Amino acid sequence: LPKAGGAASHATHGAGTLAANAQGTGYLFTNEAGSIIPVSESQLGQYTYSGTGAGGGSQGILEYLLTGSPQSLTQGLVQGVTWGAIAYMVVPIIGDLLGLEEGLTEGLQYGFTAGLATARILQAPTFGLQTATAGWIGLGVGVAVFIMTYKETKYEVVSFDCQPWEAPIGGSDCEKCHDGLEPCSEYRCKSLGQACGIINEGTSEERCVWLNERDVKSPAIRPWEEVLTEGYDYNPLTARPSARGTEIVRIGGSSRPGATTSDCIEAFTPIEFGIQTDKPAQCKIDFDISSSYVDMTYYFGGSNIYDYNHSQVLNLPSPGHVEDYAESIEDEVDGLEIQNDGKYNFFVRCQSANGYYNRDPYLIHFCVDEGQDTTPPVIEEFSIKDGSAVQFEVEEVPIIVYTNEPATCRWSRESDLGYDAMVNEMTNCATSPLQMEGNFYYACYGTLTGLEDRKNNKYYFKCGDQPWLEGSDRESERTPNSESRELNLRGTQPLNIKPNSVRPFDGEVVEGATSSVAVGLEVETENGESGVGTSTCYYSTDGVDFRNEFQNTTSHKHFQRQDLPQGTYDYYYRCVDSGGNLAVANTTFSVVIDRASPQIVRILESDGALELITDEDAECYYATNDNTGCNFNTTFGTRMTYADPDKENEHFGEWNLDDTYYVRCIDDNGKQPNPDRCSIVVKPVDVLE
After folding, report:
1. Contact present, 303 and 310 (Cβ < 8 Å)
2. Among the residues of 495-647, which ranges form H helices?
3. Which candidate, 39, 10, 9, places its Cα nearest to that of 24?
4. Of 635, 627, 636, 615, nearest to 680 (Cα)?
5. Over 50: is that where the pLDDT of 631 sits?
6. Cβ(137)–Cβ(129) under 8 Å?
7. In DSSP terms, which residues pair with 503 in a beta bridge?
């Protein structure tokens, strides 16, 4: 019977089974008597049934949503979404309990959600897949989604250290210098071992030997006074023997306002210090104490050279900056460990050429000022030198501003603007104490725009410190520059090749009398950055590879000699000035080898004068001494003249019937007949007689 005041109880219909209605929406209920009753979604709570589908009461609803095999696509979708939602909420909780990384937890969350949802949906009658098959497909989908969504971000500082090649320790192979056919040079000798050297140099007994083979002492180390940055001093460490360590202290205390450690070095201020050894040695320095020289990480000063003097430059942040930065990113700053409130111990070992080093490391100790930072960043330098020229019609240039500490920087074309009023922000700045460049400064990258040609362009820069405080409730603690740093860039005019200055001329034939002919490559430039064409020129034979610089260049005239065999040549010239302005030219010419002396092709008597015509431009000389004949020095001969200076193949001389003219001609390449030969012998006659 129906419950009082409510719908009929499901007991009224008895027990039965429930199946999806294949002809439409809803379900078909089959009771114990075999009668089939259509049931809608809203009526499911009135029935008690077995099998798949949703059930009566709370038990039926849970089975419908979670456990029963879906009897329709709708039920499959409902179960898929339900299982996916459960996975989405539960996986992060489990991940936190297990201490999994955020990226791994997120990947598992998406993978389980997609996999379970897919498996339940595929079990719907529409797809007709068995539970096992749908489960395997769901697993595959889950794995695929996990792979696509799993992200693990990790930052590593990778250092590349390029050092000169090192000869082996000791000198056991020194005598090999005398093996083979090659002579034993000093270079070859020292390449066989660090302790190899030449004795009896310059004599017949010159040998490459192991110098100081019995030297088994490690190098003695002491502070290098002269290289220490001004304002600092070395103090012997009282806790160790004086020969085993030193402390670097600031003379007169720190100048930073608010400093609490008066003898500590200034934070974000490069300091240079060094050591000296009593013999040539290679030295290493490290934060951590190790058991051997080989295990140490860094070469002292970045150099592996064996020397007496070794210097190192450091620029360290204050402990407060590191702590503030770590707090701002809610993480530890890996790679920069502040020990004992900013106190540093550096361990140093030096190795001799024979491989002996001090096992007890030499200690260098100092502390870094931990006082409050109330000073603005110092703009140390720019990537562009002040007063540099900029290429014609270039309106913007990239620039790097280097500061002594992490900072954000801005620029303006106006000199009196405050930092906040400057609208041109540099977009990529070092914001971490770890992002120090090789020059021990922090870089801020940007682009300068609005450059104008043919005039001086002024830019003004200001920077603010502690960039990690930007946007926080402590932003007011940042200290920007009050004074601008000025940078001047000169706009230029184009560089060009002076007309008709290219040599050889295009189409020119260059002649010579030897197997190779000296050809002068010449070009002149004008205008450009200097206004007078000062530039550097390069030449190429293919128009692509311009690595060859003119021998005489860096002015407005450029010259290069080339010795070329006979042939046709293409040469390309490229000139560039200090502003990057480019001018190009090219020429094609031929080289002809002429080994023959000038030939006389005509002999004339012209108005009482002897006229000779040669097959090429030449200078002709004659003598009338019958005793010497052709064997005379042209220096003492009589030079024939040109009637027309532009016709150097037409030569004129005396016409005397009583003389015999022995003629020798020399071309522009110096070719002339052999000493006992003439170009021609002329005996004038009077044809009228």
Report:
1. yes
2. none
3. 39
4. 615
5. yes
6. yes
7. 522
Phi and psi angles of residue 188, each rounded to the nearest 5 degrees, phi first: -65, -40
Q: How many residues does the chain have?
A: 689
Q: Per the structure block, which two tokens stand in for 470? A: 């930007």
Q: Can you read off the two tokens belonging to residue 346?
A: 């550096």
What type of residue is 628? T
**Residue 94 to residue 103: CA distance in whole angstroms:** 14
Instruction: Give residues with Cβ within 8 angstroms of 119, minimum separation 6.
Output: 80, 83, 134, 135, 137, 138, 139
The pLDDT tens digits for 464-510 are 998 888 888 888 888 899 999 999 999 999 999 999 999 999 999 99
Bridge pairing between strands 600-606 and 638-639: unpaired
Alpha helices in 150-198, H assignment, sequence order:
186-190
Q: What is the pLDDT of residues 641-653, one digit of tens each?
A: 998 989 999 999 9
Residue 189 reports pLDDT greater than 50: yes
pTM of the model: 0.58
- In the chain the domains, ranked by start, together with CATH numbers, are 10-149 (no CATH), 221-367 (no CATH), 379-491 (2.60.40), 497-593 (2.60.40.650), 600-682 (2.60.40)
Rounded distance between C-alpha atoms, residue 491 and residue 389, angstroms: 6
Question: Residue holding tokens 């066989």?
Answer: 192
* 645: preceding bond cis by omega (within 30 degrees): no
Give dist(CA 190, CA 199) in Å, integer: 12
Q: How far apart are CA 97 and CA 105, in angstroms?
A: 11
- CA quadruple 473, 266, 464, 432: dihedral sign: negative
Residue 263 is given by DSSP the state T
The per-residue pLDDT for 33 is 64
In this prediction, residue 383 carries a pLDDT of 95
The encoded tokens of residue 342 equal: 């900013």
3-state secondary structure of 656: coil
How far apart CA 489 and CA 529 sit, in angstroms, is: 12
Cα separation of 536 and 261, whole Å?
55
Q: Give me the pLDDT at residue 87, please.
A: 79
Residue pair 118/77 in contact (Cβ under 8 Å)? The answer is no
**In what order do the strands lie in the sheet containing 27-31?**
36-39, 27-31, 15-20, 48-50
- Alpha carbons 322 and 318: distance in angstroms, whole number: 7
CA distance 11 to 18: 15
Q: What pLDDT score was predicted for residue 258?
A: 44
Report which residue type is found at 339. Answer: Q
Contact 391, 442 (CB under 8 A): no
| Cα angle value 8/10/12 (rounded, 5°) | 70
Please name the residues in contact with 498: beta carbons below 8 A apart, sequence gap of 6 or more: 523, 524, 525, 526, 533, 556
Q: How many CB atoms lie within 10 A of CB 326?
A: 18
392 CB neighbour count, 10 Å cutoff: 20
CB 360 within 8 A of CB 243: no
> Which residues lie closer than 8 Å to 135 by C-beta, 6 or more apart?
119
Q: Are the CB atoms for 282 and 351 separated by under 8 Å?
A: yes
Residue type, 9: S
SS3 453: coil
